Amino acid sequence: MPLASGNALAQSGVGASSDPAPAAGATGRGVRILPPEPVNAPTVADKQQVQPEPSRATAGSPAAQPGGLSPVAPPATLPVLTACDRPVATPALRFSEQAQFDRLLRKKLRTGRAVTVDMDTPYPADREAPLPLGAWLNEIKQSGGSVSVAPYCQKGRGLGGFFAKLFGGGPARPYKAARRYDAVLHVDAVDQVVTQVEFTPRKVGQ
Fold it and tell me: Exposed, middle or buried: residue 133 (CB in 10 Å: 0-12, 13-18, 19+)?
């Protein structure tokens, strides 16, 4: 009976489940697809880079400088060389103005006292004394006086074999005042230069 069959279908549809029909594909076969998990943002701990452990300074070694730089050793201290003081602290004359030197030295020698001449520019001990100083030393030597070398600052080396060429010649008369004197050449033994010439009264009998 067509009407009875239709009513039966209608009644059976009332009790049907309200769930949607299963989808085709993997879901329809009972496989559940999980949504992708969100990627977590890096944490603060992940952002921190691992710093290398600073090397520990051993005993006796300089400490490391900030920033990983190697320590810089202090420069070596060089010895300080100090010049020796000249033997005579208060010389009577300075050998600078040669034009007036003869007149000034002659005046000093006539007093009969010791006279020290300070060399503004020391000259090598193995060279001839500059004029007019060399002429005065020559007069002392020619008149029987002595011209000696007195090294200072340290022991002199080879300062005794050059007297023959130390002194320049000159007229005897202008340097007559030197005949009563001996002379001592004060030599800086480190630099081998004459820094002072000391005229000392000659001993009686010479």
Answer: buried
Give the mean model confidence (pLDDT) for residues 129-154. Answer: 92
Q: What pLDDT is attached to residue 187?
A: 95
Separation CA 136–CA 140 (nearest Å): 7
Q: Is-contact 91 196, C-beta < 8 A?
A: yes
Q: Residue 174: pLDDT band by 50, 70, 90 thresholds?
A: confident
CA distance 191 to 193: 6
Q: In whole angstroms, how far apart are CA 165 and each of 111, 160, 193?
A: 29, 12, 15
Q: Summarize pLDDT for 89-140 with one digit per residue, the tens.
A: 999 999 986 778 999 999 999 999 999 999 999 999 999 999 899 999 999 9
Q: Measured between alpha carbons, how far is 21 from 177 in angstroms, rounded to an integer?
A: 147
Q: Which structure tokens are listed for 49?
A: 């880079």
How far apart are alpha carbons 8 and 22 in whole angstroms? 25
Q: How far is CA 183 from the centre of its chain?
A: 42
Token pair 């090294």 is found at 151
